[in-house]
Amino acid sequence: MRPPFLFLALLLLLGWISGELRSSLLIAADDPLATLRSFSAFSSVDLRRLEAGEVLGEPGSQMEFPNGISTETCFAVFVPAAEAARRLQIWDPSLRGTLKTLQFHLVNKSCTVADFQNLRLDPANRPQRWLIDKSLATTGNKSELNLSRDECQQLASLARTKPGPEGIGAYWSQLLLDRTTQFQRDGFAGLLPYEMAGQLISPLAHLRALMAERETVAREFAPLLNQCGMLGGNGKSVLEPFHYWALYEANRHATLTLGAVYLLPVGDRFQLLDVQYYVNGTYYTFATLYEVWAIELHQQPAALIWRGDFFSAPRLAYARGVERLAYAAIMLQELKDSIRSFQKEALNPTSELSLKPPP
Questions:
Q1: Phi and psi at residue 188, to the nearest 5°
Q2: Three-state secondary structure along 62-92?
Q3: Hey, CA dihedral for 44, 225, 181, 240, is it positive or negative?
Q4: Count of CA atoms in the C-beta half-sphere (13 A) of 47
Q5: What pLDDT does 199 receive?
Q6: Confidence class of residue 344 from pLDDT cuts 50, 70 and 90?
Q7: How many CA atoms, within 13 angstroms, populate the side-chain half-sphere of residue 319?
Q8: Where are the domains of the chain?
Q9: pTM metric for this prediction
Q10: Strand ranges inside 225-268, DSSP E
Q11: Higher pLDDT, 56 or 352
């Protein structure tokens, strides 16, 4: 039999080890870099590179979901974390020309016709000409655009009676109003599927499939993804998002989108989701997640930001291997350009151009 004092010593030693382990876990939980490593593709992050303004990037690994790709970035801005999160929620990317943003507009939380009256399609602009032509080519049961069957029939009818750019623009303004109204009322549960070539394409199903491919990210952002209604529940949000509509040039095509940006404080950090819940062509949906931590750089308050972008498009289903990696690399480079623009604008706290008050 072991002497009692040895047994007591062993208990004390185990207690000390357990206490040290708990302490180290608490430190890790409070350490932004440790948290970032726990769910992201970044196995290490050099703060000196972030201090110098570098944007770190990682192309996402291959997905089993055939329509999806993702990328991750990490960067810092020299403003407090709460301010960085607020700016990310209301940032207007149309100021960045390389983003090919043709129009970007705020939408009131109870949207009206006036929110979409600025939409104009210019037939002299080649990407916008593409959208006009595809609208005119729509028939009652066939379209290359992302429409429900009823929307398809309405567009086909209008194309016969009002084929000019004004009539087509008015149609899209009304569709954006209708879909925004439904989303503001019913959340993700109210999203209509696209009906393409006899196949139903659900933006919500694609968003959930993208998240399922990155389980560690989905777990990290579970508070936000559950409260906004994208994952679980009845699809309705308990958060009030920032709403917008935009006209982008994607793959040389003018593409209309509807988006919502959710912001949730989680302990001492912030989580954001910028989701394009409706896209009228070229791709299916796009979601961006941000996590923002308070750090100190050059002895002043700063924000450490992780960003994950998740993209679903029809043409990705036919891309394999190197081609799919090339898509991710191109997307990553464009995202870095956008982030550098945000970093520069964040240094100007009085900029009225980059900070538009939410409705």
A1: -65, -30
A2: CCCCCCEEEEEEEEEECCCHHHHHHHHHHEC
A3: negative
A4: 14
A5: 85
A6: confident
A7: 18
A8: 1-31, 45-346
A9: 0.87
A10: 242-250, 253-266
A11: 56
